[in-house]
Amino acid sequence: MENNSIFKGLKILELSSVLAGPAVGMFFAELGATIIKIENKTTHGDITRKWKLPEEDPNIEYSAYYLSTNWGKEIIFSDLRNPTDKEHIYSLIKECDIVISNFKQDSAIKLQFDYSKIKSLNPKVIYGQIQAYSDAPQMAGFDAKIQAETGWMYMNGQSEGPPTKIPVAIIDLMAAHQLKEGILVALIHRFKTGLGSKVTTSLFDSAIASLANQGSSYLNNNIIPVRKGSLHPTISPYGETFKTSDGYYILLAIGTDKQFELMCSAFSIVIEGYNTNHSRVKYRQQLGKILQISFLKFNKIEVEKISKQHNLPISSIKNLDEVFDNPYTKNLILKYKHDPNLKCLKTVSFKID
Fold first, then answer.
1. CA–CA distance, 326 with 112 (Å, rounded to integer)
2. Is 69 exposed, middle or buried (0-12, 13-18, 19+ CB in 10 A)?
3. Which residue, of 11, 69, 288, 333, has the fewest CB within 10 Å?
4. Domains of the chain and any CATH numbers
């Protein structure tokens, strides 16, 4: 089954900007749906069109940021306060299966693009809405602020350094995943009942729901996660980084006692007293000093070769130039139809056979 035919015939109107909402729209575009993205013509479109790195050409219409989540969409510039434009959008809504919105609640009501209005135009529509906070839908949302509010920043960074924001808007992307899942469930519900739905999620809720083991450690043991750099709180050596003889950094993701034993054998590391994960976590610093001395005997190529031979979860730490030098990674690149020089990454990485 070709991914790009799964949702062929599905029509989606996107009333969202920046990252979370557009990421949902692009997900469906990659799977064959028709996406009509409405951009505010009074502000020259989605604000991310202007979010350019200093190295980007200021004369090009699109920023790399904008390109990351707007592949495969039909763009319509419109003023939702203009009666003529509004009626045109209403006519499109009557033909759509899904509407994606990230308006604040009061803005949606004021503009007359809230769920109540849209449902009156199309009772079978699925209305997907991303908010900043479920308990304060009138507030605007910003990924960095939510990272600060939900513990993500507090536990991210080096132990002696300040709290650090994750360099990808991870909360936006997690909220996008939540909304995708909710919309897919609503599509199944409509298939069974013929009824439309309103699907909502928030950046805050998505961030909390994704705390996983860190959240569980607090809930069950009252342990507040602290900054450990890339170290794992309960596994070692997992996340530890070491230098090779030629100055490169490698990362270890050794998760079992058997893997640790195999690593020591493969790299001729003679060591006693660390045969259990408990001992390795408890005496992490002492173990790290021994491992650093051991890996300084090898260069990066040797480490990668030995790790591959023994199927060990060890990798050199690569920059994006190295990442995209991988032929397989090139299969995850999408080109814009109207200009093949414009590229982005697939957001759909699964296959259905």
1. 48
2. buried
3. 333
4. 3-210+331-345 (3.40.50.10540), 238-317 (3.30.1540.10)
* Residue 71, token pair as written in the block: 């592949």
Q: What's the token pair of residue 21?
A: 């909402």
The tens digit of pLDDT for each residue in 236-284 reads: 999 999 999 999 999 999 999 999 999 999 999 999 999 999 999 999 9
Residues contacting residue 348 through CB under 8 Å, at least 6 positions apart? 3, 27, 30, 31
101: phi then psi, degrees, rounded to nearest 5: -135, 145
Q: Is 193 exposed, middle or buried (0-12, 13-18, 19+ CB in 10 A)?
A: exposed
CA 224 to chain centre: 24
Summarised one tens digit per residue, pLDDT across range 86-143 is: 999 999 999 999 999 999 888 999 999 999 999 999 999 999 999 999 887 778 889 9
DSSP string, 250-301: EEEE--SHHHHHHHHHHTT----S--SHHHHHHTHHHHHHHHHHHHTTS-HH
Task: Using the structure block, give the residue that is written with the tokens 């960095």.
Answer: 144
Task: Specify the pLDDT at position 288.
Answer: 95
